[in-house]
Amino acid sequence: MNARLMELIDVSTIETMAEQFYKLTNISHQLLDAEKECIFSFGINEMKICKLPKIEIPIFLYNQHLGSFVVWSNKSDIFNCQKYFEMLSNLIIDGATKVFQSKNTTLLSRKEEELHTILQNMPVMVDALDYNGDFVLWNRECEIVTGYTAEEIIGNPNALQLLYPDHNYRHQIQTKFLTCGKNFRDWEMHLTCKNGEIKTIMWSNISEQFPVTGYSYWAVGVDITHLKAIEDQLKQQTSELELIFKALPDLCFLTEDDGTIIDYKAGSPSKFYVPAQAFMGKKFFEVLPSPVAQQFQEAIHQVKEKGTNVIVEYPLTINGSVDFFEARCLPLLHDKIMIIVRDITERKKTEELLNKSDTLAAIGQLAAGVAHEVRNPLTVIKGFIQLFQINKEDQEKYFDLMLSEIERIEAILQEFLSIAKTDEINTEQKNIYQIYNNVVSLMNTKAIMTNIQVELYADNKDISIECSENQLKQVFINILQNSIEAMPDGGKIIIHIKEINDEGVIIHVIDEGIGIPEDRIKRLGEPFYSTKEKGTGIGLMLSYKII
């Protein structure tokens, strides 16, 4: 039997009526289900019914075929039979409809209960309003977040005043709601909890996507108070970092992990090798000299491979002079690399001076030993030559030459001893202009003899510095002596004293000599290195030591 049809009809009543009809009319018939299975039959005799006309009366409920009455009778009874069995079909349909509706009502009620259970236990806030504007749904998550129970909210005409006590803010929400209607997502609202705490809830209206009978509006909300606090903290930290970033005097680049430059920040645009617009969106190979670009490419590769900081030092020729830079390559999130570039030109110069100082110290120790060892025999030789000079008048010219050379050796040894001196230097405030003016007066006679004019200028003639006057005079004499010897045919020497923001003094000494090749300038100050035929290289070395 068809369980579906048997569940929907009162079979015994229909079968009784069909049996009575058969007893009165002796007309054979049967009731079949949708699969042609026989539910009941009367008067079915294969020999008898095979010769009679047959009619089939289908039974439909909501366009679903439940079964059929099949009747065998002669033509004169067909019409009456059809009417009777149509009446039975209608009885079946009426009964089935009631049963079906009853079952659907029960099923719907069960589904509603299941839906209510799901909504109540969802890990997000779910609320709903009816067409009067009263809450009809307030799930457990709403209770947990706000502290208000469902009994306090559902059906309470003042519920909105509890949740949004500020009249102006509540009016703002209502106005926005009327404007947006059912079309809003991720709408942030500041809800007041039962304990007075204000929380930020992000609501999304789902009334249109999932309409529910009796709900004029219902929405899903998420408590994002903690996330907003973190977001505000991150914004604050980001703002502070941006201020620090902008205050840095260094040049900074932001690159992709393939070396493409995507952003920059410069403390001094004058330190750009090329204008900013020329390197944005490009790789280092496109804007920097090949050796420097290769250094950066290798550094970026190391940052990607090891995830550690990498330091690169490189020179660049900017505005006609060679500057030195140090770049620190730092790994960032999302495959980005921060490159912080610092001008270390002055540091390099300082290191070079320190290296020269170390060299001078070592040479000084050597000089002391050499000077003491050589001076003694020279003294003896000089004495004997003086004796020979008394007795050998005809060889006087040779003695004079020998004494001259020995005196030159003594002078060199004296300079050696000056280098080796490590006595404590006494300094005091002295007028730098007066010191240099005294040196110019001292050297002026020699300058005039070689047709050289010395001019001394100062922005401020009252500049005083902490110094050792005698040592500075020695430096100034050495430098002026070099300038005079560089101009055998005469010329002009200009000396300019300039104060730098109360931090120090710069003294420019400019002559009109033949100059020094660039490749030799770096060697100036090295012991025994000189560009002059009779120079010893010690005078400038001593000047370096004093400075």
How would you sum up this structure, described in words?
The protein is of the alpha+beta class. Helix content is 49%, strand content 24%. The longest helix has 47 residues, at 75-121. It is rod-shaped, with a radius of gyration of 55 Å. It starts with a helix and ends with a helix.
Across the major sheet, the strand order is 6-5-9-8-7
Shape call: rod-shaped
Overall pLDDT, averaged? 79
Main β sheet profile: 5 strands, antiparallel
Radius of gyration over alpha carbons? 55 Å
In the residues, how many domains can be counted?
A: 5
Helix content: 40-55%
Distance between the termini: 119 Å
DSSP E strands, number: 19
Strand coverage percent? 15-25%
What is the structural class? Answer: alpha+beta
Query: Number of DSSP helices?
Result: 18
pLDDT below 50 for ≥5 consecutive residues: which ranges? none
Task: Write a concise keyword list for the protein shown above.
single chain; 547 residues; alpha+beta; Beta-Lactamase; 5 domains; five-stranded antiparallel beta sheet; 18 helices
